Amino acid sequence: MRVPSAPARRTVLAGALVVALLTAAAPASADARPDRHPTGSLVLIGGALKESNTQVYGEIIERAGGPRARIGVITAASVPESQDPHAGDPALCSNSACNGAYYADLFKRHGAADAQWIPLDTDHVANADSDAVVAQVESMTGFFFGGGDQYRYVTTLLRGDRHKDSKVLAAIRAKLARGAVVSGSSAGAQIASGPDMVTGGESYEGLRDGSAPGYFDDPTRLGYLPRGGFGFLRSGLVDTHTGAYGREGRALRLASDTGHDRVYALEENTALIVDRPGSASEHMTVLGPNGVAVLDLRDARAHDSANGWSLRRARYSYLTDGDRYDARTWTARVHPGKQPLVPAATTPVPANTDVFHSAADPDGTPYSFRTTARALASTRAQNSATATTFETGPRFTVTFTKARGFAAFTGDGTGARTLIALRIDIAPQ
């Protein structure tokens, strides 16, 4: 059985279509907006979904009808067979067709009645307007978008510089509005975004250089697509693989640059479940072993100076399994099985000189942003702590502060699990 490859850091998609779709920002087309009264749900995973994650696979299947679930698998973010040198080897292949077969088999092993690959990729763009493929979509009760490069979903399922829905995407959107579940992992979660969907970049370079509309060969350059993705989730930006690649910095910079006041930053192997997306009653639940960060920029203020870019008064909440979030009221509801944390540690928060886990640092510590936040929550020795970027020129300092409204919760009474409204400030040195 093949194991899916790690998420691609960058794939160049050249051509006139790229230029056309990366023009100045404009409102998304009307047909890309959610139904006024949606009844379906989203299950968005931060990437690296393990085969053994029965919690998340089971949730998707249950929402698709349980033992009657029929899952349509879409893997157009993968390279097509024609570009995979290992296409003929089931043990090594990593293309749209073999990835589709992999996920279809997984869903059936987890209890779906049926799961089928929807034959779409950059070699079969015309299939997105095929009546036969639309009929296949109509026979499904749920959908799963696989990982890879989210821009391939744009070029496969959206049409023209106004991002008009293809027939297949229109059918999926209508199914979602009527109650279907739409799920996705990594690029398959990113593509649910509305305007200003991230296309790539690293935290340090994003903080240093800012963001720009586009899709860039340089994997460190912070880029975004002004017209966004499919627009299934519009109450905030979406980022994925957050802890694994330290993406909190790039998420905060992109949100600030583009005028968004909220980001849902998804961790790997963990899902953000969104019920009634796009409606006034949109609400969310976290499911899985890690968590989802909600970055709140309503009171944040950014400033550019000769020394570099800074951001003050952002808020960071880290929600874990069973926690809920009301998008309309900006309110987290911590799972009743967790208790308020009473800080017991008296030691200072350990110094951290690689807050975003830089790829340039061979000794970098994964999840260092989250680790610093939790260590601060667990100590009574201090009310603030700092961590810095590995890179210099400038070096950025992130300050974590237990300000008014902050709360921490534990599941076992010993350490911080869920964090609510920790203040975040970023400044250059």
Describe this structure in words.
It comes from Streptomyces filamentosus (Streptomyces roseosporus). It is built from 11 helices and 24 strands. Residues 1-35 have low confidence and may be disordered. The strands form 4 sheets. Strands 11, 12, 15, 16, 17, 20, 21, 22, 23 and 24 form a 10-stranded mixed sheet that branches. The protein has a 9-stranded mixed sheet with strand order 3-2-4-7-1-13-14-18-19. Strands 8-10-9 form a 3-stranded mixed sheet, with no helix packed on it. Helix content is 22%, strand content 26%. The longest helix has 14 residues, at 96-109. It is an alpha+beta fold. The relative contact order is 0.13. It has helices at 16-21, 54-63, 96-109, 131-138, 150-157, 167-177, 187-190, 203-209, 242-245, 248-258, 368-378, and strands spanning 41-45, 70-74, 114-117, 142-145, 158-159, 164-165, 181-185, 197-200, 212-213, 223-225, 237-239, 262-266, 271-275, 283-287, 291-296, 301-305, 308-320, 324-326, 331-333, 339-340, 384-388, 396-401, 407-410, 418-428. The chain folds into 2 domains: 16-294, 3-Layer(aba) Sandwich (Rossmann fold), CATH 3.40.50; 304-319 and 341-428, no CATH class.
